[in-house]
Structures are given as structure tokens and as C-alpha cells.
Specification:
476 residues, paralog of FGE (formylglycine-generating enzyme), alpha+beta, 2 domains, 14% strand, binds fe (ii) ion
Length: 476
């Protein structure tokens, strides 16, 4: 944890010195509130330099320090996610949709260099990186084709880590020196949420690298693997719908695609209290679901036939048993665990087989509003695979698996794209992607909220995706 020291000398001459870490930030804020009437507050960083700020400036300094601490924490997490990988693991691109781990480490760094440091005149660290580690923002110049990312052997992994360290040093220096104004700090905030997205992509892409090679090595062998558990029949909650508000409000961080908050009309519907489990997918398979075109969208069935889908991704039939690869290695499919690695096409077909349907994203958000995402099962819980949805009431709406909705990834009514490169980076919509909600067991805790919109192509299977059913009225 980063350490710095804040000395507060209030009017009554009492002196207090606290070590600054995430846990004491609230205490510092309280002290500033308590002594806010004093005209000046001494504010000192760990290098021993002391600055005297007026109350407002002191608040700004605390905000910048808070941001710096979160910056360090999020950036370190990306390195931790990659720690179990070999140098060779970092370089492989197993399919065009997935990127090498080395590229993720560099691209998340590129974001801070191009969108923050370049705006304050910081010289380029290496001009090659502007081209190599851009993702798809054409306003930064020519792009490297996504499918070519695995062929970028230079810079080396060591150089990429040096690039991260150089950018981190400059960002932290600029924050400490109060050289980043409010808009620049907002871009850092955006960059941290962007990096958390890539931390999940790192895991899904590494899983594809390891899970599709002959020996299917484990990413980690120390992950939680308590098996079994019994789950009850699928139950339903009734929601009245009506004229509702959805989307992100004014307060707190949100991506541009969650705004503006707007009204939607929802007819009365029922939502399943849990996502589908492996036993239900096995029943679909046993009933010939993958061979029945009437259950599928036309393009979905064509894709399933062309790709030879007979089961979820990472499943394999061996010696009369269904086995699955997960990040801890290969094991027998656990019938009680929440089903994952299903495409939208499969989710839609399975829903039709059950005589239900997928929820719209407005329905999903209505059901999720007011629930506490932090209590869900996230990547921080060190399982990196869904758990069985045991218990009562609505379960796993947040965490475990991203839930496909039947909503296409379109902008909300009244949406306006942001100006400049940020707008291009943060506001692209498409007709060919479907919205997913709720986050997964590979998502960092704190990253997802009720209004959060993820999106992938309907054929995508390598993300941690599952199925929750809805019906128009009552249970089927
Ligand atoms: Fe990105």
C-alpha cells in the first residue's frame, strides 16, 4: 500500500499525524470537515514537502491523493493477474477476438499516456507505442489489425513493464504536483475503469490460450473449488413494470453508454430467481437442442452448425463423462454450478426450449435496482468460476455470470457522444452486439452497477456468460 503522511494542525494546536492508506482516507476527510473552518491546512506528501492549502485546495489535494492511491491499486492488480503466466503465455493470441496478455498490459498504459500525459506536454516515452497499443481509436492515427496483436514480438515483456513503470511514475508525479486539473483527473478515473475491464479480458483471453492447447494447463491451482451443492427448482419473481427510469444518474462514475437516465415502459413480467445451471444445459443437450433448428435464430443455428457446437465452450465428452476446463484445470462438469461460456445464440435457443425468453436490459435493470452488487461473487473471491446458485430469493443477479439480454447495443434516447478522442474511445455503438448485464466471477469487485452495460457479438462464447430467463406473465 502506498504511504504518505498528512499532518493536520488545527486551530486548537492539537497535532495529528496519520499514515495515508485507503482505510484512513475517510478519517482524513472527517478531519478536514472538522477543521475546515481553519484558513489553512498543512498538507504533506511522503517526500517531506509540506504545502499549506486553503480549505478548498486541501479538499482537492485529498481528492488527488485518493485518486493516486486507487491508481496504484488498480494498476498493480493488472500485474498481479499476469503473475502466474510464463513469458510465452504473455505473447500468444489464440484467436482474433482475444488479445495477448502483453498487449493488455501495454494498451492500458497507452491509455494514460495518450489521454492524460500527452495533454500536459509530457514527451512520448516511445513513439512506436502510439501505433502498437492503440485499440480502435482512429483519431490517434493508423491502427494495427486486431488479429495481428499476437505478432508484436517487440517490445519485449520486460520493455512493456518498463513502459508501465514510466507512465505510472509520471502520472503519480503529476498528481502529487497538482498538475492535473479536474477534467484530467476525470480521464484518469475513466482509465482506471477501463483497466478493470481489461483485467477481466486478461482472464478470459488467458483462459482461451491455456484451455485450447493440448495439455490444458491450469492458470492457478490454488483457486477455491468446493464442489457439489444442490439447487432447487427454478422459481420466479413477478415485477409489475410500468413507466420506469433507467440508466446512470448524475452522481458517481458511469461510462457514457449508461447515460442519459431516461424513461422506459415495461409490461408486467416474471424473472427467474437464478441463472440456469449446468443440469439444465445438460437437459437441453440431451433433448437434442443443438440439432433442432426451430429452437434457434436462423443465423444462430447456422453458426452452431458451422462451428460444430455440441456443448458450452470448454466442455469435452471423455470416457462417458462431460469434462470442462476452467482456470484451475480440467474436472468433471458440476451439474449444480451456474452454466457459463454460452453465446447469445445458445442462450436464446435454451430459453426458447424452456418456453421462456431472455430479459430485456430494461427488465434486468429494474430487477437489479436497489440490490447490493458488492455482496456478490466477484474475481476478488479467488474462485474465477461460477458457484451453484444455492439459497432463496433472487440470486446471482450480480457476479458469477454476465447475463445475456435480448437488447441490441444501441445508444439510449438523447445520448450524446463526448468530444474528441475520448468520445471515439468511449462512445461507440453497433447493431451487431447484444447487451449483457450484471458482471461475473472474473469482474473486479466494485466495477459493476445496476446501470452497467456490457456488450458482445451474439456468437461470442469465451466471455463468462450465462442465461437468466424471463417470461411475459407468470412462470411457464
Ligand atoms: Fe481498451
Amino acid at each position: 500500500m502506498a504511504r504518505a503522511t498528512l499532518r493536520i494542525r488545527p486551530k486548537d494546536s492539537r497535532r495529528g499525524t496519520v499514515r495515508i492508506g485507503q482505510l484512513v482516507m475517510a478519517s482524513i476527510r472527517n478531519r478536514l470537515d472538522r477543521y475546515g473552518g481553519h484558513p489553512l491546512v498543512p498538507f504533506a506528501l511522503g517526500d517531506g514537502s509540506i504545502r499549506w492549502y486553503g480549505r478548498c485546495k486541501a479538499r482537492g489535494a485529498v481528492k488527488a491523493l485518493d485518486l493516486m492511491l486507487r491508481y496504484k491499486t488498480v494498476r498493480q492488480r493488472s500485474v498481479s493477474v499476469c503473475a502466474p503466466l510464463s513469458i510465452e503465455d504473455h505473447a500468444i493470441q489464440s484467436m482474433p477476438d482475444a488479445s495477448p496478455a502483453k498487449w493488455h498490459l501495454a494498451h492500458t498504459t497507452w491509455f494514460f499516456e495518450q489521454l492524460v500525459l500527452s495533454t500536459i506536454g509530457s514527451p512520448s516515452i516511445d513513439p512506436r507505442y502510439r501505433l502498437l497499443f492503440n485499440s480502435d481509436a482512429e483519431s490517434f492515427g493508423p491502427l494495427v489489425d486486431r488479429a495481428m496483436r499476437g505478432r508484436i514480438s517487440r517490445p519485449s515483456l520486460e520493455e512493456v513493464h518498463a513502459y508501465r513503470a514510466a507512465v505510472d511514475g509520471r502520472i503519480e508525479e503529476a498528481l502529487a504536483a497538482d498538475r492535473l486539473d479536474g477534467p484530467a483527473q476525470a480521464v484518469i478515473e475513466l482509465g482506471l475503469h477501463h483497466e478493470q475491464q481489461h483485467q477481466e479480458l486478461l482472464l478470459t483471453d488467458v483462459k482461451h490460450v491455456l484451455g485450447t492447447q493440448p495439455l490444458q494447463p491450469a492458470y492457478r491451482t490454488d483457486l477455491e473449488r468446493t464442489g457439489g451443492g444442490t439447487i432447487g427448482p427454478l422459481e420466479w419473481i413477478e415485477l409489475d413494470g410500468g413507466l420506469v427510469e433507467m440508466g446512470a444518474g448524475e452522481h458517481g462514475f458511469s461510462f457514457a453508454n449508461e447515460r442519459p437516465r431516461h424513461q422506459a415502459v415495461i409490461a408486467p413480467f416474471s424473472l427467474a430467481t437464478r441463472p440456469l445451471c449446468n443440469a439444465e444445459v445438460l437437459a437441453f443437450m440431451g433433448d437434442g437442442g443443438y440439432d433442432e433448428p426451430r429452437l434457434w435464430l436462423e443465423d444462430g443455428f447456422a453458426t452452431a452448425q458451422r462451428e460444430g457446437w455440441r456443448a458450452p465452450l470448454y466442455w469435452e465428452h471423455r470416457d462417458g463423462m462431460w469434462m470442462q476446463y476452467d482456470l484451475a484445470g480440467v474436472r468433471e462438469v458440476d451439474a449444480a454450478e451456474t452454466a457459463c461460456h454460452l453465446s447469445y445464440y445458445e442462450a436464446d435457443a435454451i430459453a426458447r426450449w424452456t418456453q421462456a425468453r431472455l430479459p430485456t436490459e430494461a427488465e434486468w435493470e429494474l430487477a437489479a435496482t436497489g440490490l447490493r452488487p458488492r455482496a456478490a461473487h466477484w474475481a476478488d473471491d479467488d474462485r474465477l468460476h461460477p458457484r451453484p446458485a444455492t439459497g432463496d430469493g433472487i440470486r446471482q443477479l450480480f457476479g458469477d455470470v454476465w447475463e445475456w439480454t435480448q437488447s441490441a447495443y444501441a445508444p439510449y434516447p438523447g445520448a450524446r457522444s463526448l468530444a474528441g478522442s475520448i468520445g471515439e474511445y468511449n462512445g461507440k455503438f453497433s447493431s451487431g452486439n447484444m447487451v449483457l448485464r450484471g458482471g461475473s466471477c472474473l469482474t473486479p469487485r466494485g466495477h459493476v452497477r445496476a446501470s452497467y452495460r456490457n456488450f458482445f457479438a451474439p456468437s461470442a462464447r469465451w466471455q463468462m456468460t450465462g442465461v437468466r430467463l424471463a417470461t411475459d406473465r407468470g412462470a411457464p
